[in-house]
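INFO  loader      accepted 1 record
INFO  loader      residues=327
INFO  predictor   begin
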Amino acid sequence: MLKQVKQLLGKAEAPRAVPASPLISIIVIVYDMPTQAENTINSLRVDYQQGVESSDYEVILIENESPNLVSPEFIKTFPSNFRYVHRKEAESSPVQAINYGASLARGSHICLMIDGARMLTPGVVKNIILGHRLHEHAVVSIPGYHLGHELQQEAVKTGYGVQAERELIESIDWPKNGYRLFDISCFSGSSAPGFFLPNSESNCLSIPREIWSALGGCDTRFNLRGGGLTNLDLYKRACEYPGVQHVIVPGEGTFHQFHGGVTTGGENEKATEAYMGSSKEQYRELRGEEYECPETNPVFLGQFPVQAQRFLHYSCEMFSAHSCPTS
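INFO  predictor   done
INFO  writer      dumping tokens
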């Protein structure tokens, strides 16, 4: 993998030993979502991710206590670069589990997937590594999608759920071609502006370890159930950290699976609105201002599979409409 990276960047290959530690530590947080977690983990395996070796990255699955845990039989299938940690977390926020996972990480870069119900396309890990090779202080983000043809918090009103989603995934014969996830998806709310306008978060965000440490990881004061705006806060602080180069990989994606989450259809509309109101209020209290998407000058990296090109066209239209003054 390292040789491929240097060739792609036009650098001469120098003999070197295989690193004792992985380049990327991917921290995946799960709670009460065993089926979805299995799909996510399977999309991170080296036989699914293209152009990487197991020595390039590690995956740390942190599972907070719930009535529905990932099965021991599935955990036994983990390859040597995967680890499982079960936490009897007292708090309903995932923040403590995230920071604990980071403390276990051996990689030189910390990649956070705060919602473990997100399947990945096959080039995510390879392109995260490429992104970090581009710049010493690169922060690499992967755009987010929802499985289904509309946002899950809307689709649930007309019967969308776990069974409908299972049938949708089976319709593309996943995981034979992971890029077909684009065929059955729509942009998530945080990525709805498209690739070329500011987004509010990424559910696959990779940060150099020294910047993670300087930021203090996730702020433990975000203690609401589900974490409130902690992921948006980390994304903003990381992207705006001095000297950072933001790298976006628009040809890859993470795809949210329905699991009854607090903001994606697991509760009634009034409860969701109340939760979002509390999350925004907490952010104002902690940061002294309303949340706004970070304004960055990103580098766009990677290739576009044919399945993702409709999202490229949409993004161009959104950028054009935003940039051109209306009469």
